[in-house]
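Table S5 (text form). Sequence records supplied for joint modeling of the three-component complex.
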Amino acid sequence: MIAAIFSLAILGLFLGTSLGVASRYLRVEGNPLADEIEAMLPGSQCGQCGFPGCGPAASAVANNEAPVTLCPPGGKSLAGELAAKLGVEADLSDVEDKAPQMATINEALCIGCTKCFKRCPTDAILGGPKQIHAVISDACTGCEKCVDICPTECVSMKPIPVTLQNWHWPKPTLAA
Amino acid sequence: MRGLKLFKIRGGVHPNANKQATHDRNIAKLPVPGLLRIPLLQHIGSPAQPVVKLGDYVLKGQLLARPQGAISAPVHAPTSGKIVSIGKYQAPHPSGLPVPTITLKTDGKDEWTQTWEYEDPFQMEPAKIAEIVANAGIVGMGGATFPSAVKLGLRNRYQLEKLIINGAECEPYLTCDSRLMQEHAAEIIDGIRIMMHALGVTETLIAVEKNKPDAITSLEQAAGDHPGIKVVGVPVQYPMGSEKHLTQTLIGKETPARALTADLGVVVHNVATAYAIHDALRNSRPLISRIVTVTGAAIQNPGNYQVLIGTPVSHIIDCCGGLKNDPEKLILGGPMMGQPLPSTKVPIIKGSGGILALTSKEVPMKDPSPCIRCASCVNVCPCGLLPLEMAIRAKAGDLDGAAEYGLMDCISCGSCSYVCPSHIPLVQYFNYAKGALTEKQRAQHKQEEIKRLIEARKERMEKQAKAKKEKLARRKAEMAEKKKQVSETSA
Amino acid sequence: MPFINTSSPHQQNQSSVPDLMRKVLLALIPGALACLYYFGFGVLVNIVIASATALASETIMLNLRHYPVRRYLTDYSALVTAILLALALPATVPWWLTVIATSFAIVIAKQLYGGLGYNPFNPAMIGYVVALIAFPQQMTQWPVPQPGGALGLLDVLLLQLTGTLSDPAILDAVTSATPMDQIKTGIGLNRTIGEISTGALFGTVAGRGWELVNLLFLLGGLWLLWKKVINWQIPVAVLSALFFWSWMFNLYDGDLYSSPFFHLFSGGTMLCAFFIATDPVTASTTHWGRLIYGMGIGILTFIIRNWGGYPDGIAFAVILMNMAVPTIDYYTQPRVFGHQDED
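The corresponding structure-token record, covering 1010 residues in total, follows.
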């Protein structure tokens, strides 16, 4: 009886001390989860989720203040990855799985107002005042910021075209 | 000389060769079709840039499009005629996607243009040979279609010792290389000597699978007593014609992963490439035609034909007497690594060695069933991979997992699918996973670039804001100064 | 003209899963006939009951899982499981025991894990072990091997379907423990191997009847090897490991440890080495892995036979090594072309 009490007390003391020491010396600065989630997000800071950028969005997801389905450019695959990361069940049926898109400018309608390229977060639109603008496909993240601001509605989102260089075999469809 | 010590390669399969239908058929010239569709992307690298305009009249051998970038190849007119379209046309590729294509309406005169002056290749600088090969638009004709001139220029960066000529032709059905070796052995040997001069090597091994004794004999006769050129009969084992595996068979060394055979001091070229190089340097002719094996049980008259680049597949099939019966599959290349054709209107390109119209009896379609882990695929993989483990991961979408099991070391030779008792499309899983992985890496790279752009923009915005602020402050100060002066003067 | 968009290769060899399974079934025939010859009609009854149960439970499970029944039944995998299990069961077991063991094998060990190709454990051996643990008494009584069988067809049917005999007194005369079991009990009673094997149940090197049964399973296995249905590594590793260790111990003390030939030709050794351990789904897939896996089975069989609680250790050895397969496979991956020294 006494031996049991004694050993349990020693055990408690030892574990308590080590926990205390660990909490002091092994403390984690900041929320590592938020950083990890930010690395998973597209990083275009497009703001379609309602947060001012990918960083704030990531910390919101990490703190359970935003759903894992918040990122439209990330699509279903990102939502699934986030759900797996956080260990939560997510209803992915509402997530639209958009093929990666990029902005295209209808040159017939463009008046060279420069509004879109000032707005573009990645400098993906080229052009000057009174000049027709063009989109650099490698820099466009498909964030759609330029779509609404165009006074002539000449910017639209189109899927990135498939060419011989980026085509690959689809996954076999027959079940096995 | 058959006394050379050979080394064994792992795995491999022994598919039915099925070469009997065409291996005795002499190479015949195919009639020129009315329209030629000449794709500008027939090689690995960037598409060529057109230098002709719509409506131009071009002569045979005239440059149609020039190379663009370091790895690219020019395209020449296969015959004389008028350019009737410069645009996009379906590519001879399983995707059936359009590719930039020049359409030539042939005039039947087949009139040559003046190409380049003949010079004795053995008096030339090696760089000059590579330049002519580049100008002739010669690419690897075994199917890899890598620009040959780039490979001839490797002596600048590597210590080269040997040239290996790949005449293995391990793909079933195909006999185009075999026929070429029998009928044009002297030209091939001449091409090889030119390449040896360009590469600065003194030793060449011509590897031919032992099931082609006629080709071996004619090459040996043509090689005569050229010092340094040896014809080697290699075992009949698919995929003997894989560059790295052939090199291992001949010199016993494995090419390190993601390196070139040049790291071992070896350059490998196809026999048809050697022939094309001979033609370019001796006859001043660019690469405008190739030998194609047309066979399969659905073809009326199988055979080997010299076909102009750009000839539509339908024209070739018609010239072979058409189809006997409905083919189950129509394939460009061999049955092991060739690709299904999207339609018969697509053209022949520089890398197409065969057109196969196979009946359902030859290629019965079998539904896949679950993997029973029999490991037949492991036994036959020439690269030492575990195809079943890679396939599980590719199927589940775990691309990184598949890559950990060596996905990127897979050469898509098809040995695993060939033996799979469950008929699992292993190669398609790997091709899909490789493509998806590349896409992912491309997206990641784009992501990083974009992050950099965002940072740059942020910095610029901050700088602008700062400048604006400073300007404002300065103006304020100026105004205050002015005001002060005004008040001072007024006082 | 059809333009079917499937990737290369377009040519395939003739092998298929049903074909492999058919060959396995064919290769079992000589050994099974020998069983029938020595142990009587009970073997046939077992095979019929096990096959019917396997096909029925496979059908039900495939239906529940919404799989095409016809296609999956005709891969013959359920039949192979049933017949391996039937051959492993004593030829006197009651019908319900065969039904329980077989349905457990198919429903739980195979289908609940995802069906053919996904089961981590050999279904036949799981079924056998379940029966052995739950009904040890029925599972250790074998008919006395005797040409033509010790019991007539009628008696066998009576015994297996109703549990009685026309003359209950003869039951003890026609069934007994296996030679391996007798050695185990005999050793426990401080008798020597030499003394025990003078018994009526013993033949030249191993149990009477069992010798021929094992020999014919060996022949069937060699045919499978020749037909390239199985790889050589597993049978060679199983048999050589078993032979080596039993030989060593036999040299050390021949009175306590049976001869290596006794081990090779007793119980289910050959059936295991060529037909059970080589089940592709649950075996290792790499060259070295198969050797390790086979040796593990050989060694564990030897250990359980000599020091374990059961007379034969094959089923346990196979299941234990099944468990180790993922680890073995992971650490025995072949060297990839072009990677000289693995980092």
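Note: The first strand of chain C starts at residue 142 and ends at 143.
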